[in-house]
Amino acid sequence: MAVPSLDTLIAEAPTSRGQVAAADGTALAWARWDRPDPRGRVVILHGYGEHGERYGHTARWLRELGWSVSALDQRGFGRSGGVRGDAQGLGPFIEDFSRFLPGERLPGRPLVALAHSFGGLVALTALAEQPRRVDGAILSSPSLVLRPLPWSVRAIKRILLRLAPHLSLDLPNNKDLVCSDPDLVARYWADPLCHRRITAAYSEVFEEGFARLLGLAAGIRTPLLVLEAGEDTVADPDAADPFWARVPPDQLERVRLEGFRHEVFHDLQRGQAELRAADWLARHFRPAAGNPEALRAMRG
After folding, report:
1. What is the pTM of this model?
2. Fold of the CATH domain 6-299
3. What share of the chain has pLDDT > 70, as a percent?
């Protein structure tokens, strides 16, 4: 059976694609969905096992609100270089994201991050360590603390961390548990740029990230909208409470979306998440003068 092309799998093809070199020379792929006279730009940072163009439908919705959109494929994912699902700590991911952001800012317009799961951990750590990188961030099911693994998996992980931390394994998963939209689940399995590869070293970056964040929470000065899934089988939003309790309350809006699975912007009910995000964007970033289309889209 022929492998379908990426453009047949994504909801909206980008207006342009390209690459930027990471500090260590790794080629990092990006895609853009530009529009005339945008309110600003939203930069999408994907989660584990996927890539930026899987959010084509999200880019389409944001463009209707008046925003230009771009997405970065993190190292080891999508079109970017690097070993699939491996890590040399969290640092390179943060550095990649921080290196990408300046080129995405439009003169005189706001720059906002929209980051999911592992991408949420990366983006949040980046903006906590390097304030003013973005003007606001929407975090979808940020994986600050993961659900506990079965004891057998934890035992295997400990052995691999000692003997073969960068051995790449195929991670079995049931996509239906994290995504309620059967069409997007089917697209995921058919997408050659999605993968399930993981190493023990990669699995360690979540604990590293949360430990780093705990000491930085009180210094966050970036407005945050956190959208948490009520039926999240990957991240444990309640276990992240010690971090959120330290974030200045005037910077944080935290919303629990009951009935949602982990992939908030891929959920069958994603319209509710989009309404929450559109309202937050409207309150924090006024549309640019001469862009009445954005106002009309936000008011329905």
Report:
1. 0.92
2. Rossmann fold (3.40.50)
3. 92
